[in-house]
Structure formats: C-alpha cells, structure tokens
From TrEMBL:
<dbReference type="InterPro" id="IPR027417">
    <property type="entry name" value="P-loop_NTPase"/>
</dbReference>
<protein>
    <recommendedName>
        <fullName>Protein CR006 P-loop domain-containing protein</fullName>
    </recommendedName>
</protein>
<feature type="domain" description="Protein CR006 P-loop">
    <location>
        <begin position="51"/>
        <end position="690"/>
    </location>
</feature>
<feature type="coiled-coil region">
    <location>
        <begin position="92"/>
        <end position="126"/>
    </location>
</feature>
<keyword id="KW-0175">Coiled coil</keyword>
<dbReference type="Pfam" id="PF13166">
    <property type="entry name" value="AAA_13"/>
</dbReference>
<dbReference type="InterPro" id="IPR026866">
    <property type="entry name" value="CR006_AAA"/>
</dbReference>
Length: 711
C-alpha cells in the first residue's frame, strides 16, 4: 500500500487512481479482507475512490509491495532501466544479547543426544550380532541391510514389514529346514477315481430288456445255476480231451451221463445262461469298483500322514495346509444300490427293470467330488515336493523373513528412544539456527541489501551474463559495467522485464524499517513475464518459489500473482508454488483447472512425429527444435551455468553427424541464405537426433509420445 504523502494530482488535475475507475463512473469502492485457514481475520480495510481526488489510504496490517506496469514505468523505465542508487537508511536488527546461556544449552542437548544415540546403536548391534549374524549366509541378503542402526532409526517414520510369524517361530522354521535329509523321497500322489460310465449305461440298457428263458426244467436249471462255473470248467476240459472219460474222476461216461452233458451244453449255449453270466460279471465289476475306492481312500490317508510329517518336520511354509479326507462311503453305497438292482434282475431276466438316470448321475457326482479332493491334495503334494527339492529357496525365504521380523522388533523396541533422539536433534538445530541468527543481528544497510538481492535474482536468470555494480548500481555485462543510458539499448524487451523484476525484489528492503517488518510483507505481482521466453518464465517461477531464500529475513511468503498467460499459470500451479488457484471469468472468481496445454510436450510431440511417424516438417518445426533445446538447456543447467544453447548442443549432440550443424543453425532461429535449401530428409535427421538424445537421458518423455500416438 503506497504512503499517503506519495500520492498527488498531476498537472491536469487527475488522480493516479482515476484509471482504476470503470468507464463512465466517477467513483468506486474497494474492499479487501484476509483470513487465515482457521478463519481468523488478518487484515480488513475499505477504500473509496473519487475521480479527480486523492483517496485516503487506510491503515493496514501488512506492507503491500506491488509489481505491475506502473512500477516498471515509474521506477525502472523512466530511469533508462538503471537502478536508482540514492538509497539511504538501515534496517534495524534486534538487540544483541549474551549467547553463553544458549551455547551451554546447545552443548548439553548435543551431549544428551549423542550419548542416547550411541546407546541405542550399541543395543541394536548387540542384538543383531547375538541373534542374526550367526545364521549362515544371511549377510548376503539385501534384507540384512535393514538391521543397521541407520535403517532402524529411519524405520520409525515408515511402515513396518508384514510378517507371518514371530521371530521365535521363524527361528524354529529355519532349524526345521536345516534338518531336511539329503535323500528325502517325494510323497506319491493319489490315483484318481476312474469309473467306466459307458459300461454303467450299457448295464442300464440291459436291465431294461426282456431276455428269453431256456425250455429246460426249472429245477434242472436251478441246479446248474448254483454250480454253473464248475460245470463250464468241466465242459471245457471234456472238449479238450475229446473222449468219453470224465476229466475229474476219469470214469467212462455212460449214455445217461452223456445225455446229461448234452443238456448242460444246451443250457450253457442258451441265451439265458449267457445273460446271467454277463450280469454276474457286471456285479463283480461293481464290487471290485467298491473295493478300489477303499484302496484309494487308504492311499489318501497314507499321503495325509506323510504330508503332515513333512510339513511339521521340514517345510514350515506348508504347515497351514491341510489335505482333504475322502468320503467314499456315499459313492460305495450308490454303487452297491446298482449291484442290488442287478441281483434283482438275475432272479428273472425275462422281466425288464427300468433304471432312473439319477442312479448313474449320483455315482458320477460322487466321482467328481472325490476327484476334486484328490486333485487338490495332489496339487499340494506336488508343491511340497517341489519345496523339498528346492529347499535352498525355502531357506532363503525364511532368512529374509527373519531379517524383516528382527527389523520390526528393533524398531518397536527402540522407537521411544529414537523419537527422543530426533526431538533432541530438532531442538539442537532450532537452537543452533537461533544462535546463528542472533549472531548475525545487526543494523543492516538498505542499500547493501537491495544490491545483494538484485544480484541474486539476476544470477537466477543470467548467471554471470548480467550482474549489478554495487557502487554505481549500473548493470554489468560480462564483467563490463554499462555506461549511463546504455542499458536501454543493450537489453532485449524480455531482459528489460527480467531486470525490472529483479529491481522489484531488491526494493522489498525499502518497504521495511526493522526486521519485524519482514513479517508484514505482502507481495502483489501482476503479469511479470511480458516478452519473456518460456525458459525465463520457468526461472521467474523459481524466483517466486524461493523468495523466502532470496530475502533471508522473510519467514513466510504472502503473495498474490495475477496473469493472463496460461504457461505461467501452469508452472505456478503444477509445481505448487501457489496454494490457491483462481480464474476470473465473467466477473467471478472460480477454481482454476490445472489441465492446461504444456508447450514443451507439444513441441516434443511434433518433432517425434517427424522423426518416428513419417510426418512432414512444416514452418513450426524449427521453432519446436529451438524450444526443446532451450528447455533442456535450462533444465539441465538450471541457473548456475554459463552454458547457452550452443554449448548444450556442443556437449550433447554428436558432432560427427550432419544433424549437429543443422540443429546448431535451427536452434539459433534461422537458416543462412548461402546454404543449400534444407530438405525433408534433413529435417527428419535433425528430429531423429533430437529424439535419440532425449531417449538416452529422458526415456520416459519418448515413452509418453509413443503412448500418446497409440491412443
């Protein structure tokens, strides 16, 4: 806020505030209020403006320091872009005091922190040496580094590792793994249940058929049925001997015996006999199937016992795994029910018996359930076998887990003491800074502070190209002081605005009378980037970001930045240089959206498309190349290097290629008339060289271009 006595009507009776009024209006009001994040009012004032009158400047709680076109016109341009050296006065420091008490306190804090830190480090090292270091090959693991005292100290700020067991349990697991015998055999897998459902369906169809019965007497057939196997065996032997002697008792067969044998032969070859024989074979098949299920069940039980032994004794990572038991009873009952139906059929094969589909479906369901359990068990059996055969990996995994668990224990054990150490360090740093500040407190020349600050800001932009002569307050160009009025002709338009901004930052010290006044400063910065290229815009944002470092007495930055420039706004917001971002639209302030165009990325995308996508160069390609080189030059060298664009090309672009020469010319803004016309292939070579350079040092940028083109 300007002082009251600095405002006056001009020779035409106009007030310097008349231009602030809306066209056609003769008066207006201005209200301004500042509140902190907690809602506390920090400043609140009103001002009335009347055309042709000097307004009354209200009392404010802050010192408002403004950069705008008026500042440039009145303080810089009017003086030929030279700084007014007529600066008098001092900035009053605080009264010097005896620092012995503070220094004694500092030494006491340092001693206490050092002793406590040494004790904690000693206990950490002792624990690791006693419990961890003697584990074979554990020091080769990267996780062992977590057990250093430095890592443990840092650990109280980080999340602990997720571990599955306590340290004692992990030690027990390690000992189990060490005890695995060299030739420990694999656990065999369990055979799956494999029922022939094609046969079951054939049996089903046969049960539903009507078979013809033999014409022999029923009592005769019954006798044969009871000993059919015996009779068939005898008949086979008799046919083999081909004589009339009984193959069993060796007696000669008489006519009655031969007639009986003929009856036997007739029956055996009869359909009824063959059918009964087939059904009995079916019944026997199903009975064997029931028996096989019992065998599979027994084998599975044995595998469970072996698995439990291995996981308990040798493979702790599988100890939570439980193999499933088999429930074969239900399957056996379903099969037995099928057998009983066959037995019923055998009583009278001429009667059809219809079988429900559910009977076979029930058997198939039980097979599926059993095989699911068997497959799951076999998967775990194969897994534990693999772990056994790669026991070194299991060993390594447990050792890693031991390191993590030990780290967690050390952090938890020493957390309180480590926090105390950090607090002591913080307390020591604060007191040490306070002592240093007190030592530096003195009456400081405003002239010297203004000059020093201007030189610092100029260095941000120009390194040693431009500086300030502290005696004459004239600019220095590469160690040569400019003569009076020479700056107006030497500086470009963009450089003039940079110099004006540097003078503005330096003039901050003219707003204060004492160190306490720095706490009242409020910066108002209105579009300071006129005629600046993007590199300088970026640097200016850095100056705003570092303003509390440039003005060392400034403890907190308070500022408003106004701009019409999207690029300037983007850098300020995307780098969190300002806290609140607003857009003035149709007389209203609205939250600003950070999703703005990024010039560098757009230029890079154009060059990438020429180099890699086969697009033709156009009238903006050279400008894109220049923009990229300028940005990379400033990004790599910040503001401390003397190197310019030519130096960057010299050190980073291969000088044995034609592209080197082309880039050097294009990046300086033009193509010499004496040279041959640049061709599409020349442009493609230049662009490819640029892309390869960026791909080498900043590969993520080229990956972004690739992905963007794939969208």
């Amino acid at each position: 806020m300007e002082k009251q006595d600095e405002l006056a009507l001009d020779e035409n009776g106009k007030s310097p505030t008349d231009k602030l009024l809306t066209f056609g209006k003769n008066n207006g009001t201005f209200s301004f209020k500042i509140t902190d994040k907690d809602g506390n009012v920090k400043d609140d004032f009103n001002m009335s403006i009347t055309k042709g009158q000097i307004p009354t400047i209200p009392e404010t709680n802050y010192l408002y320091h403004t950069f705008n076109q008026d500042y440039v016109e009145q303080n810089i341009k009017a003086l030929g872009y030279e700084k007014d050296s007529d600066i008098e006065g001092f900035i009053l420091g605080k009264v010097n005091i005896d620092l012995k008490e503070d220094e004694d306190k500092l030494a006491k804090i340092e001693k206490e922190g050092k002793e406590l830190s040494e004790q904690v480090e000693k206990e950490i090292d002792a624990y690791v040496k006693e419990n961890i270091s003697n584990i074979q090959n554990i020091k080769r693991l990267s996780e062992y580094a977590y057990l250093s005292s430095k890592a443990v100290f840092q650990g109280i700020e980080n999340e602990l590792f997720e571990v599955s067991k306590s340290i004692d349990e992990l030690f027990a697991d390690y000992n189990k793994i060490k005890s695995v015998p060299e030739n420990l055999s694999d656990i065999n897998t369990v055979d799956r249940v494999n029922i022939d459902f094609k046969l079951l369906n054939e049996i089903k169809e046969n049960l539903n058929k009507e078979f013809s019965l033999s014409s022999l007497a029923e009592d005769f057939k019954q006798k044969i049925k009871n000993k059919q196997s015996f009779i068939e065996t005898g008949m086979t032997l008799l046919s083999e001997t081909n004589n009339n002697t009984c193959p069993f008792c060796e007696q000669e067969l008489r006519e009655s015996a031969l007639n009986l044998i003929d009856s036997y032969t007739k029956y055996i070859n009869d359909t009824e006999s063959k059918t009964i024989k087939r059904f009995k074979a079916n019944s026997e098949f199903l009975s064997n199937l029931i028996a096989s299920l019992k065998v599979i069940d027994n084998n599975n039980a044995k595998r469970i016992n072996s698995f439990n032994e291995y996981k308990t004794k040798y493979i702790p990572s599988s100890e939570e795994v439980e193999l499933g038991s088999l429930n074969v009873d239900a399957a056996q009952k379903a099969i037995q029910a099928y057998i009983e139906i066959i037995e019923e059929k055998l009583k009278d094969i001429s009667k059809p018996i219809a079988i429900e589909n559910s009977i076979i479906e029930d058997i198939e369901k039980h097979q599926t359930l059993l095989n699911n359990t068997i497959d799951s068990n076999n998967e775990q059996i194969n897994l534990i076998n693999a772990k056994k055969n790669r026991i070194g990996e299991e060993n390594k995994s447990v050792r890693k887990e031991i390191c993590k668990c030990a780290y967690n224990n050390l952090v938890e054990t020493h957390k309180t003491n480590i926090k105390t150490i950090f607090q002591l360090r913080k307390k020591w740093k604060a007191l040490d800074d306070e002592i240093n500040i007190k030592k530096e407190q003195q009456k400081v020349s405003k002239r010297a502070k203004v000059a020093s600050t201007i030189k610092t800001v100029l260095n941000y932009f120009f390194s040693d190209k431009y500086s300030l002569d502290e005696e004459t307050f004239r600019l220095i160009f590469y160690k040569t002081a400019l003569e009076k009025d020479q700056a107006r002709d030497v500086l470009s338009d963009g450089e003039k605005n940079i110099v004006a901004f540097a003078y503005y930052i330096g003039d901050t010290h003219l707003k204060v009378e004492s160190e306490d006044d720095y706490e009242k400063l409020f910066f108002i910065i209105d579009d300071p980037i006129s005629s600046m290229d993007f590199t300088h815009v970026y640097t200016l944002c850095g100056v705003i970001r570092d303003i509390s470092k440039i003005i060392d007495k400034l403890k907190r930055e308070r500022l408003f930045v106004f701009t019409h420039n999207n690029d300037f706004m983007r850098v300020l917001t995307s780098n969190n240089i300002v806290d609140k971002k607003l857009l003035l639209k149709k007389g209203e302030l609205k939250d600003f959206n950070n999703n703005l165009t990024v010039p560098y990325i757009n230029h890079l995308m154009d060059v990438y498309n020429v180099a890699r996508k086969g697009e033709n160069a156009n009238h903006t390609t050279a400008n894109s190349i220049r923009h990229i080189i300028e940005t990379l030059t400033k990004f790599q060298n910040i503001d401390i290097s003397k190197d310019g664009i030519a130096d960057y090309i010299k050190y980073n672009i291969p000088n044995d290629t034609k592209s080197y020469t082309l880039i050097n010319d294009l990046s300086h803004g033009g193509w010499r008339s004496e040279q041959s016309p640049i061709t599409e292939d020349d442009y493609k070579d230049v662009c490819e060289t640029i892309i390869k350079h960026i791909e080498k040092d900043f590969s993520g940028q080229i990956e972004y271009c690739k992905k963007f083109n794939e969208l």
